[in-house]
Amino acid sequence: MEKIRKQFPILRQYIYANTPVFGPFYDDLLEWRQERDLDVLIHATEMAKKRGHLLDETRATIGEFFNCKRENIALITNFSTGMNFLLEGLNTSSKVLVLEKDYASVNWPFERREFEMHYATIDENVEDTIAQIVEKEGINVLAFAMVHWQNGIKIDLEFIKQLKSKYPELLIIADGTQFMGSQEFSFENSGIDVLATSGYKWLLGGYGNGFMLFSDFAEQCVAVKSIGDNTATVTQEREGTIPFAKYFEPGHLSDHSFGSLQFSLNFLQKIGMSAITTQNTILSEKAMTVLGELNLLEAKVTRRKSHSTIFNIKGDDALFQYLSNNGVLCAKRGNGIRLGFHFYNTTDEIDEISKLIKKR
Questions:
Q1: How far is the first Cα of the chain from the last one, in angstroms, to the nearest whole number?
Q2: 30-49, pLDDT tens digit by residue?
Q3: List of domains in the chain
Q4: Is 103 left (phi over 0), alpha (psi -120 to 50) or beta?
């Protein structure tokens, strides 16, 4: 991974533990974006002719990367916009289960509408709680972030698959923004019906891009109301042949933003998602051990069988400022300090963070 690390200028200056906020740019991506800007500068509207082709290529790359049918992929500017488009077409008589204190863009869109809401506590037993509420309350819709934005608890994907098998009429909606790109993932085999994500974190795609993946069942549950010039041709609208996913693309999309996403997907593919998964597993286990020994983690995290690479450690503003002053880029979240590690991080960096905390 040392050769890969050299691609990221930020790593030469800091211990970058802030991927949950933003996936850093790297040399090859910056070069591609600069060349693209130069092409637009020189050729102007001639570049517009290539836009549709690049977007189609991006859609195809997403489908191959995450094992999803190309026609079931929508390109969106960010998770929050896609989520709101989706819920405008969902029957408000649905009984919805979400997680307490989940990411605002997951919970708030439901809470602002007239759904019957139910909540599960996110702790070491969250899967058992979800299963109990689904059965007891006759839940129609389950929505959750695959990895919790604050404490890093990762929902067991095997559990989700089994839940969908037991309740095939349950619409399962997942926010993949803190998950996609962190490990290998096959949408077709996941049991998830709608997976939406922004691309600027673990996928390293920069701002302004994201996507939604749909199961065939999702189309049966949602009557999408969003539409615009980019959704379809006039002929398609007249004949009613518009693909479901295209309703989530009402306006023009930036080929610059989505080209960046495609470039980074290819970059991750060259490294190998198997290698990235292995490295992130090593980092997760290392951080769990080291930070756990310092008694910096909540019990609901340490009691889990497996965890993501996001950790929220006990610490006040003074500790946050101390880490920042010593070259550790992280974020204040909730009552603690959030650290997030990706494949370009090392176990030595985790040890260094531990040493800094011990020295304080």
A1: 30
A2: 999 999 888 777 766 665 55
A3: 2-25+272-359 (3.90.1150.10), 39-269 (3.40.640.10)
A4: beta
